Amino acid sequence: MHTPTLTAASPLSDSQAAPTTYISTFLGNRFWPTEPRVDRIDLEDIAHGLAYQCRFNGQTSAFYSVAQHSIMVASILPPRLHKAALLHDAAEAYLGDIVKPLKHLLPGFADIEAGVTRLIAQAFQVDFDTDHAAIKHADMVALATEKRDLMPNSTEAWSYLAGIAPLPGAIDPLPPAQAKAAFLAAWTRVIC
User: Fold this and answer.
1) What is the pTM of this model?
2) What's the CATH fold of domain 22-191?
3) What confidence category does residue 54 fall into, taking pLDDT thresholds of 50, 70 and 90?
């Protein structure tokens, strides 16, 4: 049996030791979260990133993506809000879907997320502020539906869902590639 020989790594040069401060995207773009630029925002990167991220930190009965969640939120709202609804969590494509209890403990992260969200709004010409209440309500309806259908062992009441009724139909979770395709198809319907 051959045992690999362990050797000491050679010291890193200054350029190698510098931390990577950007996020590489699916399309090969570099996205700097603390210095975001409009030219680094791409819808396919958003669709891909959201489709391959599971909601609730993966603590669901089946894989269920942020992309599918965004489609559900849009489906609840009138057509004039579909574009903003599809993009309401788009910053997560670049920053990840951090669970709410942890997000509250990281105010610096909230500031970065708000900056990326503003940039996405600018890039796609959406107004999250004007339509915030309607999108937030649809987001909560989606959340109530997701809790019911995807978190069967989470039997405790979530206080922020008080008075929010879930949708009548059950969620059929899509695998990531299908969720990405569905997100892009929903986007195409919005812009046509």
Assistant:
1) 0.87
2) Hypothetical protein af1432 (1.10.3210)
3) very high
